[in-house]
Amino acid sequence: MQHHLQQPELEQSIIIINPYCQHGKGWKRWLAVRDEVYQRLTENVIEIVLERGVHLNKTLQPVLKNESQTFLISAGGDGSVNCLVNYLMHEQKECLPKITLGAIGLGSSNDFLKPFDDHIRNIPVRLNFKENRIRHDVGVASYLDADNRPQQKYFIVNASIGVTAEANWQFNHPGPLLGSLKKISVPVSILYTAISTIIKAKSVPITLTYNSKKTTTAISNINILKVPYVSGSFYYNQPVSRDDGRLSINTCFEMSRMELLSVLSGLQKGRFVATDKTTSDFTQFISMKAKVPFVFEYDGETAKTHELKLSILPNALSVVKS
Question: CA-CA distance, 168 to 155, in Å (whole number)?
Answer without folding.
Answer: 15
